[in-house]
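Standup notes
- DV: blocked on the single-chain target, sequence here:
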Amino acid sequence: MKKVGVVLSGAGVYDGSEIHEAVLTLLAIAREGAEAVCFAPDKIQSDVINHLNGDPMNESRNVLIEAARIARGSIQSLAYASVNDLDALIVPGGFGAAKNLSTFASQGSECVVDEGLKRLALEMHRAGKPLGFICIAPAMLPKIFDFPLRLTIGTDIDTAEILEDMGAEHVSCPVDDIVVDEDNKVVTTPAYMLAQNIAEAATGIEKLVARVLVLTE
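- DV (later): unblocked, structure below
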């Protein structure tokens, strides 16, 4: 059975992993007959947001502990992730990707990517194993790789321009489709960068998971 690493960034669209995207990814992996292996960095979140009203909360939460809510406790620290144990790697979106897995939310083109994620993504690529990045998560790719990648975050012109300034080749893409960099085995999809509901997000995510698994062969 193929094993797909899924890197989570907390639990909740405004300060962690987008929960719909994360669950849809896990479901699609299972339906494809593969096994998801969840990871998250063991560190304090960038911030904590009240998801009822969007206001910051004066408290501290741990990314790994919060992500364990989505993974039903079956999750490991990203520090323990090994390229030798995985056939592919997928990173769902949510503001956690731009706050906890990177500093894209605060620093834009000058952002820094979590060292654990960068290490694992580079090792996977060197081993010829495919990567899938969802929603805003593709914004990290130009900071992981030092060569241009074809990718998408949907149709947001401002964000696309930032990614192109960072060295990416941005491809405009509808919510129900994917962009594949065949040479580098990197697959991206807009999901909730464009989706108006969970069904719209599901279509692109299912395509991404399917293509990522094809690229493992």
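- Follow-up: The chain has a mean pLDDT of 98.
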